[in-house]
Design a protein that fits this description.
Layout (H helix, E strand, L loop, with lengths): L14 E2 L3 E5 L6 E9 L3 E6 L9 E6 L3 E12 L2 E9 L2
């Protein structure tokens, strides 16, 4: 492991948030349905089944309480499912 591996550098508190979230990619029109895991002041985390959501990709998201654009920051496989962290993009 590299220096700093395993150290949590997030500055915003996470709040548990559930519900279905639709992730749409403008470049391909492809949609992924996932489950919201948590939210913070600047982003959110989603559990899903799409291994093609790669860091740097910009998506549109739709949740019962939140709608907007975001960028994939990271994607990892955990317990057989994909988990991705997103940074919300301000218009």
């Amino acid at each position: 492991m590299g220096a700093g591996a395993g150290i949590d550098l997030r500055t915003s508190q996470r709040v548990v948030c559930h519900g279905r979230v639709r992730l749409s990619r403008g470049d391909s029109g492809r949609e992924t349905i996932g489950e919201m895991v948590d939210v913070s002041a600047g982003g959110f985390r989603v559990c899903h089944d799409d291994p093609d959501l790669e860091p740097g990709a910009e998506i549109r998201f739709e949740h019962l309480f939140f709608v907007g654009r975001a960028r994939v920051v990271w994607t990892n496989r955990l317990a057989g499912r994909m988990h991705s962290g997103f940074q919300v993009l301000v218009a």
